[in-house]
Inverse folding.
């Protein structure tokens, strides 16, 4: 992860990542230990993708606005996409466990 850009909002970061080819919307599938694109039904295990960039956004007025954005890519499946996850007080504990596991593959 080289020189990362700085963004003021999650939507600003997502729009720029889309422009750079990160167009697949991934969700974490905690039960199956993978990430999945519901639109194409593509499922990737932790060893099938890389986390290219990570951005944290802290809610200035609302702790519910604390988010983390992952830009991920898979050479094997020729796909680039994003995962958005809450962190802090509203973080989903199952999702956070999976994200922690995925971060070990950086």
């Amino acid at each position: 992860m080289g020189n990362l850009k700085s963004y003021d909002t999650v939507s600003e970061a997502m729009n720029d990542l889309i422009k750079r080819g990160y167009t697949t919307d991934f969700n974490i599938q905690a039960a199956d230990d993978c990430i999945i694109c519901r639109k194409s039904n593509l499922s990737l295990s932790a060893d099938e993708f890389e986390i290219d960039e990570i951005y944290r956004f802290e809610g200035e007025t609302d702790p519910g606005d604390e988010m983390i954005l992952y830009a991920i890519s898979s050479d094997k499946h020729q796909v680039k996409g994003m995962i958005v996850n809450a962190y802090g007080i509203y973080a989903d504990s199952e999702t956070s466990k999976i994200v922690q596991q995925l971060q070990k593959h950086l």
User: Anything to note?
Assistant: The helical segments are 10-19, 93-103. The CA atoms of residues 26 and 37 lie 5 Å apart.
